Amino acid sequence: MDRMLNKVLRVGQLYDFYNALLTDKQRECLNMHYLQDLSLAEIADEFGVSRQAVHDILRRAERTLEEYEKKLGLAARYSEERRLIAAVVSSLGQLPPTIRNLPELSQALRQLHSLLEDTREV
């Protein structure tokens, strides 16, 4: 169960970064299967192809997404940047209130929090 959930999350994350680089059919199949939760049979009916054809399209698209990530590393870089920003926010949050509440630092903390919130969906 965890393995399947991890796969869905991984494909979703890679899809967010690289979907524009896929073919229309790959993008549609991934969207229908992972985002709309349609079965292979439902997708096959929609396209007028076999379940095996849909399975092949999905596997090829997943492989393509992983290849893009291996070459470009955008998802890994994004995750690392979020981790670093969260660590900075945590460290700054542990400063004494007299320092933490300085206007410039307080504004920087708000901006960092906002950045973390704005990027949560990606």
Give the arrangement of secondary structure elements:
Blueprint: H1 2-18, H2 24-35, H3 40-47, H4 51-72, H5 74-93, H6 97-100, H7 103-118
Protein name: UPF0122 protein SPTER_17580
Keywords: Coiled coil
Pfam family, one: UPF0122
Description:
This protein folds into two domains: 2-72, Winged helix-like DNA-binding domain superfamily/Winged helix DNA-binding domain (Arc Repressor Mutant, subunit A, Orthogonal Bundle), CATH 1.10.10; 76-118. It is 81% helix and 0% strand. It has seven helices and no strands. α2 packs across α4, α3 (40-47) packs across α4 (51-72) and α5 (74-93) packs antiparallel against α7 (103-118). The two termini are 23 Å apart. Might take part in the signal recognition particle (SRP) pathway. This is inferred from the conservation of its genetic proximity to ftsY/ffh. May be a regulatory protein.
Q: Which features does this protein show?
A:
single chain, 122 residues, mainly alpha, Arc Repressor Mutant, subunit A, 2 domains, UPF0122_fam_protein, coiled coil, UPF0122 protein SPTER_17580, UPF0122
